[in-house]
Design a protein that fits this description.
mainly alpha; elongated
């Protein structure tokens, strides 16, 4: 799947969650503020779900950078670990837009 399609799918999932929350907020006896809060919560939940992979990748990359920065690895070992981490991340960190 291309990056553009993956981004489009993420936005579609988030948009659907938002629309569902908006539609669901039209029913029930909640106050306007409670309905708005439900929509905000649905948006937040959708974003959290869609970006959990990014957070996990960042955590792994951060851990690798800490090991490299500590100096416990030789130059070649640090380079190899960095290459493996980037290859396994599934992310093109060089030219990848966030959206």
């Amino acid at each position: 799947m291309s990056e553009k399609n993956a981004h489009s799918e993420r936005y579609i999932k988030i948009a659907r969650a938002c629309l569902k929350a908006i539609n669901d907020s039209g029913t029930g006896g909640e106050s306007r503020e409670e309905k708005i809060q439900k929509v905000y919560d649905a948006i937040d939940d959708a974003f959290q779900a869609e970006f959990s992979d990014y957070r996990q990748s960042l955590a792994v990359m951060g851990s690798v950078l800490e090991r490299i920065a500590s100096g416990e690895l030789s130059g070649e070992s640090a380079s190899e670990l960095a290459r493996k981490t980037l290859a396994g991340s599934g992310h093109n960190v060089a030219n990848r837009p966030i959206h």
